[in-house]
Write a structure and sequence with these properties.
The chain is α+β, with helices and mostly antiparallel strands. A hairpin with a 7-residue loop joins strand 1 and strand 2.
Amino acid sequence: CVSVQADRCGGDVSWAAVDIDGKEVFRHSMPDEEDKANVTVLQKEYPGAMPYFFSQDPDYITVKERVASHCANGTEPTGIATIDTAVETLRVAEYLT
């Protein structure tokens, strides 16, 4: 059994848990402690910006760097979702709701 919860409307915390036979075997929360420290720094640097941008800042930087490199040099942007991936993800989300 896989249990996933994400709710940005009530704050910036989301988590995922994996249960096997009713026993939790894995849990991950976002933001983690490192992200929280980065959020504090970015809130001071960019007051008034939407807080969820701060916790995802390192991911946004990675995406922008890989896509820019692809545009400038033709290098494959590894780890970046394609339109096909996005469409399949939406299909799964629709199935689950």
